[in-house]
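2024-03-11 09:14:02 INFO worker-7 job=invfold-0412 stage=load source=structure_tokens
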């Protein structure tokens, strides 16, 4: 029984604390590699935020390189020799980090920054002056636009068509101090949007319709974009996908690598997919501190709300013992989280309840360390980014 095993492994710890179940983590890593079907997976560090676990994933077959969420993070991971291939997934306006990048030859060979306009190039030039070649990746917007004015997908790049991509690629290659090495195209409306949300059959039908139309369109358009860009630049990689779209993205002949991170931890937002079911690997424990009624147990703290839309699915969820839920009028709170259900009748003061976060790496912005559990014991305890005094936004 998983609850018994986790309780035994952590019996000497006082909640709140966080763990990663290495058995589940390794299972998920193997399943992601299976789904990638031979494409290397770049580890999305924002979904991990524990240096030890980024390295653990990279040591496995099928994983290569890191997708960072800030330039400062990429520079730090380079200093720590976590990887020699660090792609920054979002454009940067961090002048201090750009100056460090320009001054460090090793970092310039390892780090690739993201651009989708010549304004990004102008900003870099203004921040650091004349400079040696900086590696850049062109980001393509792969949102679905079925009608004029309709945009389904994340608001990311300004580059949507093959013509726009080729024109920007040509301008990049003509600029002194920049080297265009890659294209990235993240299909958030598929990779990050579960097609089988629990208890929402009508929403599920709508999402599946969107994805069934968006998927073939983006494969066709991304292939055309890459063909156009390769006419003016010698690309090293074409990155796409996320945990929720590995099969689709891997079917695109233009893609050379995939990206994933959340699937290693299996947060609750990834319960809503038909095609795969990650094991919950990242958990946190809270103590029962009150029993206001027979069927309500109040836990200490726990209001670790995920970013995104302010909807109930961004709240953490009780996991073990099974059969618990938060109260709709109180939810997960800053200092207390009441839970109810038949299982609450058996809980007493000092018992622990295991919780799951809605998203993956955001949990570890709350904890300085994470206990890595193997079987019924703690294998070791390691710092999170926060525990290493690293905050990248």
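2024-03-11 09:14:09 INFO worker-7 stage=emit residues=393
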């Amino acid at each position: 029984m998983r609850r018994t095993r986790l309780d035994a492994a952590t019996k000497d710890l006082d909640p709140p604390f966080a763990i990663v179940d290495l058995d589940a983590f390794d299972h998920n890593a193997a399943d992601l590699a299976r789904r990638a079907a031979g494409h290397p997976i770049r580890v999305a560090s924002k979904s991990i935020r524990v240096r030890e676990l980024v390295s653990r994933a990279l040591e496995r077959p099928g994983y290569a390189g890191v997708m960072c969420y800030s330039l400062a993070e990429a520079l730090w991971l380079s200093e720590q020799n976590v990887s020699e291939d660090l792609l920054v997934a979002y454009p940067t306006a961090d002048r201090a980090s750009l100056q460090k990048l320009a001054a460090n030859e090793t970092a310039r060979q390892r780090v690739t920054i993201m651009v989708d306009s010549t304004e990004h190039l102008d900003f870099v030039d203004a921040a650091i002056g004349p400079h040696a070649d900086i590696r850049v990746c062109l980001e393509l917007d792969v949102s679905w636009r079925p009608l004029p004015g309709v945009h389904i997908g994340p608001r990311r790049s300004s580059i949507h068509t093959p013509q726009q991509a080729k024109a920007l690629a040509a301008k990049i290659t003509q600029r002194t101090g920049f080297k265009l090495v890659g294209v990235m195209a993240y299909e958030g409306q598929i990779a990050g949007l579960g097609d089988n949300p629990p208890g929402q059959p009508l929403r599920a039908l709508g999402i599946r319709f969107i994805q069934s139309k968006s998927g073939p369109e983006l494969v066709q358009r991304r292939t055309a974009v890459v063909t156009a860009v390769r006419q003016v630049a010698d690309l090293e990689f074409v990155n796409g996908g996320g945990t929720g779209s590995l099969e689709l993205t891997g079917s695109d002949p233009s893609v050379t690598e995939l990206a994933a991170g959340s699937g290693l931890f299996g947060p609750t937002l990834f319960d809503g997919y038909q095609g795969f079911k990650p094991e919950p690997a990242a958990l946190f424990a809270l103590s029962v501190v009150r029993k206001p009624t027979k069927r309500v147990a109040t836990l200490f703290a726990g209001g670790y709300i995920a970013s995104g839309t302010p909807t109930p699915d961004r709240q953490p969820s009780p996991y073990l013992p099974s059969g618990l839920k938060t109260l709709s009028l109180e939810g997960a709170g800053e200092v207390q989280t009441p839970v109810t259900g038949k299982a609450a009748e058996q809980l007493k003061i000092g018992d622990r309840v295991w919780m799951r976060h809605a998203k993956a790496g955001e949990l570890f912005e709350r904890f300085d360390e994470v206990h890595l559990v193997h079987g019924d014991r703690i294998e070791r305890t390691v710092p999170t980014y926060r525990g290493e005094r690293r905050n990248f936004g």
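2024-03-11 09:14:09 INFO worker-7 stage=report msg="Residues 22-265 form a domain with the TIM Barrel fold (CATH 3.20.20.10)."
2024-03-11 09:14:10 INFO worker-7 job finished
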